[in-house]
Specification:
three-stranded parallel beta sheet, alpha/beta, 40% helix, 85 residues
Length: 85
């Protein structure tokens, strides 16, 4: 946590292990909500990885996480050479 104060990141990413399968009114949900609130109070945007269902996306949205990443939104794709020109 000391690093968050000394060198704040542009974005803090919550790992899939913390995000996957969260549901309201569970200990995991309350932990993620508390961590998100703490980080947001520091002015750091947050990202949740591992969003695989609409329910998890809704829970993260309710918590106030800024950005989402996961199969619910699309599968990873290679960057085409055309996009680099």
């Amino acid at each position: 946590m000391q690093e968050l104060v000394e060198v704040p990141p542009d974005i803090l990413k919550f790992d899939i292990g913390l995000v996957a399968g969260i549901a309201p009114n569970t200990p995991k949900y309350r932990l993620l909500a508390s961590l998100n609130n703490l980080v947001k109070e520091m002015g750091i945007p947050t990202l949740a990885e591992g969003i695989e269902t609409a329910e998890v996306a809704d829970a993260c949205r309710t918590i106030g996480i800024d950005y989402f990443q996961g199969y619910f939104f699309g599968r990873p794709e290679p960057i085409s050479r055309a996009s680099n020109t």
